[in-house]
Amino acid sequence: MSCSICSLPSNNSFHRQGSEASSRPSQKSLPSPANNVSWAMPLRRRRVGLLPTMTNVSFDASSVNVSASDGNVGGSRELYDCDIHLASQRMDSFLKATLDMLGDDQNTQNTVCKSCLDRISSALDTHSEMLLDECAAYDEAAASEEERVSSVRRALSSVVKMNSNNNIYEEIELNALSSACNEQEQELRILQNLMYDQMCRSKAISDEEERVFHALNALEIDARNFVEESHLVTNMYHSVSEEVEAISHVKLMSVPFNVVISQDTGRYPTINNLRLAYRVNEKASLSYDEVIAAWVQAAQLVAFTCGLHPGFVSPHLRIIPLSHPCAKIVATFADGQSVHNLGWDVVSGADRSKHIDPPSILCFLALLSQLAEHIVNATKSDPPPFSMTLISIDSVDHGRQLCIASQ
């Protein structure tokens, strides 16, 4: 009976791989009638005596790397797991294919020659050796990893011990720093409180300074006003002093008052040759100036007489003889104060009246009557040559004349 494997077509991959296997004794192939794929499996052995060396150690256990050694494809643990898993899968596929082939041969009464069986056995041995090599390499890598893990643990324990010793000193330093920070915070709060107090004081001082500046400004304004008023008062004082000085040089005792009254001839009464009248008479050439001058002389006579009798003080009237342009009488009553002119206050002008105001003459006569009464009561001398009343002298009624003049 012919072999079922040898009877396969010549273009089958088994024959092609078998020829390649005969030319390359280091490789063994296994046909797969079930799936018609190549069973050629190169033998990959690992050098058992070479262990991987640790090059990089990380504290992360998931990234512990192993350097590649001679005969290894890579340098990580996953490589061994992948090689063992791949070899196991291939071994299972070979066994399953062999069992399926042998089972099919028993069912179909097919025979397999001894050379094919040797080849299948050789392929199975090859994969078994590869699994053993992979397992040995994995065991070596696992032992190396265990040593590496133990060394890492020792290193970590030493580092932890050193860190624990350092932590004690660091804790002491941290406590010292914490206490120093607390002290600095307390000092900072104290300084902030002091700064706030200083700011409040500075604001109060600024407000007080502003008030002082306002007061100083007001004081400067008052001082300037005082200087101006003082200057005015000084000028007034100088003018009054000059007037007093001028008056002091006047000798009243040497000033004659020649009073002439002529009732029979109808002439004007005169004082120092000045006609004393209460109105201007152009026909008699009686001008404003002469009337004003006569009343000034009369006022001086009354003032001189008052000076000779210091005990006389009029309760309501005060005469001012030396004033410009005419003499004046100041009357002070309960309803107020008034000034009466013994003449005209306006020197020139067409609007002034031709006669003196009657109230001014009445005030002059009242003052003259009070003075005469005081002199009579004080001296008890001979009676005056003419009978006198408040409004008349002898037979001359001044009140009636004033009423006529006012009309």
From TrEMBL:
Residues 261-389 form the Atg6 BARA domain. GO terms for biological process: autophagosome assembly; cellular response to nitrogen starvation; late endosome to vacuole transport; mitophagy. Belongs to the beclin family. It comes from the Eukaryota. It comes from Thalassiosira pseudonana. PANTHER family: BECLIN 1, BECLIN-1. One of its GO terms (molecular function) is phosphatidylinositol 3-kinase binding. It holds the Pfam family APG6. GO terms for cellular component: phagophore assembly site; phosphatidylinositol 3-kinase complex, class III, type I; phosphatidylinositol 3-kinase complex, class III, type II. InterPro entries: Atg6/Beclin (IPR007243), Atg6/Beclin_C_sf (IPR038274), Atg6_BARA (IPR040455). Residues 1-37 are annotated as: Disordered. Transmembrane segments: none annotated. This is Atg6 BARA domain-containing protein.
